[in-house]
Design goal:
Elements lengths: L11 H15 L5 E4 L5 E4 L3 H4 L6 H11 L23 E2 L10 E2 L5 H8 L7 E2 L8
Parallel strand pairs: 4-5
Antiparallel strand pairs: 1-2, 2-3
Length: about 140
């Protein structure tokens, strides 16, 4: 079993590949209609990461681990990985649309490395920081 998902400092090429895999998992997803608690129907965007649809591929899981080093303060101390069934959140929508990824947060990635990664995407697509709202 592979246990060293985040060895050493990743290269810009590895990070670009990881970002592309994550974007591909979320971008262009159609909504799926489900009935929630109390019988209220809603639509959500299922993904491999959030819902195991399609099944989560190990390469995508490694991409999440690779990028997590820039979003978690003590990623190297982590001893447990949480799988898709433990995520506890859904991406929801009010009607049948397709998801659109408009921005990627690069966490606290070093500025020079973030610049190298950003060169592979449209201007403004990659931003430093975690969780800031899109503008």
């Amino acid at each position: 079993m592979e246990t060293n998902f985040v060895p050493g400092e990743p290269s810009a090429a590895q990070l670009v590949r990881a970002v592309k895999l994550l974007v591909a998992d979320f971008d262009g997803r159609p909504t799926s209609r489900v009935t929630g608690t109390g019988g209220r129907p809603f639509e959500f965007y299922p993904t491999a990461i959030t819902d195991n649809i399609p099944p989560l591929h190990p390469e995508l899981s490694r991409a999440v681990c690779l990028l997590s080093r820039y979003h978690l303060k003590e990623f190297a101390a982590a001893t447990v990985g949480v799988g898709e069934e433990d995520r506890g959140a859904m991406i929801i929508s009010d009607a049948g649309f397709r998801s659109k990824v408009v921005q990627v947060q690069l966490g606290d990635m070093p500025a020079a490395l973030a610049e190298q990664v950003s060169e592979h995407f449209p201007a403004g697509f990659c931003r430093l920081g975690s969780g800031e709202p899109c503008s």
